[in-house]
């Protein structure tokens, strides 16, 4: 998980933050001591901009810092790194739980002489120049430097006056209101910017109309399309996505690809990914795996973690290219080191047999970053061990974190905890509630669990219905449980031929219990089958070759 913040330092060294992706702690950043402007650099008349990536732990403390974009001045880079390390921020939240996250912070070291530009803007604003007034007010609202007697309210008033005549000022006013979650004021400002011809206003208006309280996907699409036709790559990408999803407009893959290509031609990396995924679609008319690989590779080269993850998968699987596990490792490692949870989780599987200790470290990282499958796996590792009161509480906590994100396996496993009393008091009604939540997320194992609960309470007909629902999806455990009840005539009349077919399907899908039952069937000639020593041995060989989980 990554978030972006920008901090700007002027001669006074006061600063603020602009946050995105839901991470908004400008006040906390203001309270942090800003970097010192190294005297050696300042004396030589040099300045610069540094972007630093900080890793926040679950308490908001900085545990790692890396230069993302260097200023070209080692002293400035080191000053920025040191400032962030000493700062503590509120932790990033995911589904109500604090998680680790990478936060990008940009520091701008500006020499006092450059404040002459600000003085020039002030002079222009006093003479009624709307462009100068708008830029000055926008800088005041973004960067927060000390201007005696000039409040934020004064800056907003000045910006609003400029926005009536200047498209850039109207856009800045919209962004200011959006940062402060004033949706209606942002909407009005962006509409003014659109009327004044600002290319990017359509995209911002589309975003506002794509969610509450103004949710209207048809109107959102019309604004995206206006921005797209004006040449804005973000709006072109949004229009492409609308055509793919059929949001606000009928689905149209041709139009989606047209706009995605237009955005990608301007270097828009998300549009490259959209195109690549469409070219990967075997069932689509634009299936072009070589083009997909080229786009993923280009985006990965630019540091995009989703593309690096995709290239890792393609190299590992050999899909459309020679299989190269070393290349897969390299791509996943690059993305994982940037905090990409799925790549960390991929490395966990990749290293399971090669380096179990490293595998476990990557799993722990992915879980700490809030990746629900990794959190579920952390809980499952404990679940598969002997009960231990302290560890079982940790197991339940991992499951709760993943369940809060709607992970179906975690929802089911929490139900199992309540059914068996591991880590929580035994409570069958609570177990049923968690199983039902798992089923609502299309969990086949949730159906089997509900069947098991009903069977435990001797409600065999209901149990068979749950097992059959799971079996109808082809779920191996559902097929096995269905076969068992059909064989015994529990909840229905005994149906041995049908039971045999369900055992066979489950065994063919690798279910070990079904394999064992077929071995006995062929050894003893049960369920209407003739004794067949060769068939029994064949299933014994398959069972022996099947790894134990």
List the keywords.
549 residues; TolA/TonB C-terminal domain; two-stranded antiparallel sheet; 28 helices
Oligomer: single chain
- CATH topology term of the domain at 2-110: TolA/TonB C-terminal domain
Instruction: Output the structural class.
Output: alpha+beta
For the record, the CATH class of the domain at 2-110 is: Alpha Beta
**Count the helices. How many?**
28
CATH architectural arrangement of the domain at 2-110: 2-Layer Sandwich
Strand content: 5-15%
Rg for CA atoms: 30 Å
Q: What would you call the shape?
A: elongated
Number of strands: 7
| CATH fourth-tier homologous superfamily of the domain at 2-110 | TonB
pLDDT < 50 runs, ≥5 residues:
1-23, 144-149
Biggest sheet: strands side by side, in what order? 2-1-7-3-4
Helical fraction: 55-70%
Query: N-to-C terminal Cα separation, in Å?
Result: 30 Å
Q: Tell me the major beta sheet.
A: 5 strands, mixed
The average pLDDT value, as a whole number, equals: 88
């Amino acid at each position: 998980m990554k978030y972006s913040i920008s901090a700007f330092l002027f001669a006074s060294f006061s600063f603020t933050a602009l946050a995105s992706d839901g991470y908004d702690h400008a006040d906390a950043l203001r309270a942090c001591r800003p970097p010192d402007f190294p005297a050696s650099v300042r004396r030589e008349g040099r300045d610069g901009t540094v972007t630093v990536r900080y890793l926040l732990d679950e308490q908001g403390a900085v545990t790692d810092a890396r230069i993302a974009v260097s200023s070209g001045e080692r002293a400035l880079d080191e000053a920025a790194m040191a400032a962030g390390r000493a700062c503590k921020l509120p932790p990033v939240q995911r589904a109500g739980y604090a998680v680790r996250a990478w936060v990008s912070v940009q520091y701008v070291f500006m020499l006092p002489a450059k404040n002459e530009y600000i003085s020039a803007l002030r002079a222009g604003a006093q003479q009624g120049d709307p462009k100068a007034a708008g830029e000055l007010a926008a800088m005041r609202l973004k960067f927060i430097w000390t201007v005696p007697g000039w409040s934020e309210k004064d800056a907003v008033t000045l910006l609003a006056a400029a926005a009536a005549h200047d498209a850039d000022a109207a856009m800045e006013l919209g962004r200011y209101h959006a940062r402060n979650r004033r949706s209606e004021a942002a909407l009005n400002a962006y509409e003014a910017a659109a009327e004044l011809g600002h290319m990017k206003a359509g995209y911002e208006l589309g975003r506002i109309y794509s969610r509450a309280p103004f949710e209207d996907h048809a109107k959102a699409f019309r604004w995206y399309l206006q921005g797209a036709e004006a040449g804005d790559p973000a709006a072109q990408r949004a229009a492409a996505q609308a055509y793919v999803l059929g949001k606000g407009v009928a689905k149209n893959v041709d139009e989606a690809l047209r706009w995605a290509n237009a955005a990608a031609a301007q270097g828009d990396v998300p549009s490259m990914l959209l195109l690549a995924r469409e070219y990967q679609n075997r069932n689509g008319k634009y299936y072009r795996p070589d083009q997909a690989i080229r786009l993923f590779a280009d985006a990965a080269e630019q540091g995009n973690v989703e593309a690096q993850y995709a290239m890792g998968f393609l190299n590992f699987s050999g899909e459309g290219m020679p299989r190269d596990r070393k290349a897969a490792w390299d791509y996943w490692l690059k993305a994982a080191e940037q905090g990409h949870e799925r790549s960390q989780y991929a490395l966990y599987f990749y290293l399971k047999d090669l380096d179990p200790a490293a595998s476990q470290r990557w799993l722990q990282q992915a879980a700490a970053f809030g990746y629900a499958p990794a959190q579920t796996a952390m809980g499952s590792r404990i679940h598969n061990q002997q009960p231990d009161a302290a560890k079982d509480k940790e197991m339940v906590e991992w499951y709760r974190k993943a369940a809060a994100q709607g992970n179906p396996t975690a929802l089911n496993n929490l139900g199992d905890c309540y059914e068996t009393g591991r880590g929580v008091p035994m409570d069958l009604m609570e177990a049923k509630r968690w199983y039902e939540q798992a089923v609502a997320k299309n969990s086949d194992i949730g159906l089997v669990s509900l069947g098991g609960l009903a069977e435990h309470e001797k409600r065999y007909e209901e149990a068979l219905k749950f097992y059959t629902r799971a079996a109808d999806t082809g779920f191996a455990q559902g097929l096995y449980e269905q076969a068992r009840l059909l064989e015994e005539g529990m909840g229905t009349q005994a149906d041995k031929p049908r039971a045999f077919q369900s055992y066979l399907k489950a065994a063919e899908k690798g279910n070990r219990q079904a394999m064992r039952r077929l071995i006995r069937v062929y050894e003893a000639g049960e369920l209407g089958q003739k004794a067949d020593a060769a068939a029994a041995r064949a299933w014994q060989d398959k069972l022996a070759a099947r790894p134990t989980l």
